[in-house]
Design goal:
Helix 3 runs antiparallel to helix 4. The longest helix has 33 residues. This protein has one domain. By secondary structure, it is mainly α. 13% of the residues are buried. It has five helices and two strands; from the N terminus they run αααββαα. It binds protoporphyrin IX containing FE (2 copies). One protoporphyrin IX containing FE (HEM) binds next to helix 1, helix 2, helix 3 and helix 4.
Length: 199
């Protein structure tokens, strides 16, 4: 028996993809604007939001990676050859960059013994002086991630608006189409169907 091939990823993959996209964009924006806030309670709180969201993202990323390898619906590649290799390489690059940025962020938080909202300080590990180079590399890789994600989003929009090949739709939840059951009494009254028209 032939297996039916779906035209969409499963709902967990789709939810995790858009959650990742939203959280990465939010983390980058908060990371880039935090130092514009006045020193003191404001800046501490904005950085604390970044670090808390960062730890929440660690769980989303771990779930996404586990789901990708063990749970998600596998779809056939729409284009063979070089195009497929480029798409696979760009997805692998996105995963690699996300993992590097997150790893550097977590190390950064512990090297600083980061004080969350001036309420709870993380345990401090390693040489505090490392915070400057780690922040530099974390910020640099975060920028590279955003550039790669931008190119990836442009490619998805190109598929959608120019090639119109359904690749974008694979990452969008399947729409359920509900057909309203016709009211049997109305159909009989109208003489359009039902038992009476056959007898
Ligand atoms: C930071 C933002 C983003 C990241 C990190 C990201 C990452 C990824 C990754 C890794 C995949 C491959 C799926 C997998 O192997 O698990 C993927 C697929 C996909 N992404 Fe994104 N993405 C981002 C934003 C976007 C945006 C903004 C769009 C649309 C405008 C988009 C559209 C798609 C589509 C359509 C696919 C499915 C491609 C296919 O079926 O082969 N992504 N994304
Ligand atoms: C993909 C996710 C992430 C992005 C896009 C991101 C982005 C950024 C950016 C742009 C900066 C500013 C760097 C600079 O000033 O040059 C920053 C700083 C920082 N990030 Fe992230 N980050 C992410 C994840 C994380 C995670 C998971 C953690 C820890 C749990 C974290 C902890 C930090 C810390 C401690 C700083 C320095 C704060 C300070 O200067 O006081 N980040 N991040």
């Amino acid at each position: 028996m032939e297996e039916e091939v779906s035209s969409h990823y499963d709902s967990t993959t789709i939810a995790l993809h858009w959650l990742t996209a939203g959280m990465v964009a939010a983390l980058w924006c908060v990371g880039r604007v935090a130092d514009f806030f006045p020193k003191g309670v404001w800046r501490t709180n904005v950085w604390s939001i970044h670090v808390s969201l960062g730890f929440a993202f660690v769980t989303v990323l771990a779930w996404r990676i586990v789901w990708r390898f063990f749970g998600r619906r596998r779809l056939p590649f729409p284009y063979p050859g070089l195009t497929h290799k480029l798409a696979a390489a760009s997805h692998a690059l996105l995963y690699a960059l996300v993992c590097v940025v997150v790893a550097l962020g977590v190390v950064n938080a512990f090297v600083r013994g980061f004080n969350l909202f001036d309420v709870f300080a993380l345990p401090q590990f390693g040489d505090r002086e490392l915070k400057t180079p780690i922040t530099f590399w974390h910020g640099l890789f975060a920028n590279l991630l955003m550039l790669t994600a931008l190119a990836h989003a442009c490619a998805a929009l190109f598929h959608h608006y120019v090639l119109q090949d359904g690749v974008m739709e694979r990452m969008i939840p399947e729409r359920q189409i509900y057909v309203e059951e016709p009211d049997l009494d109305t159909l009989i009254e109208d003489g359009k169907g039902g038992r009476s028209s056959h007898t």
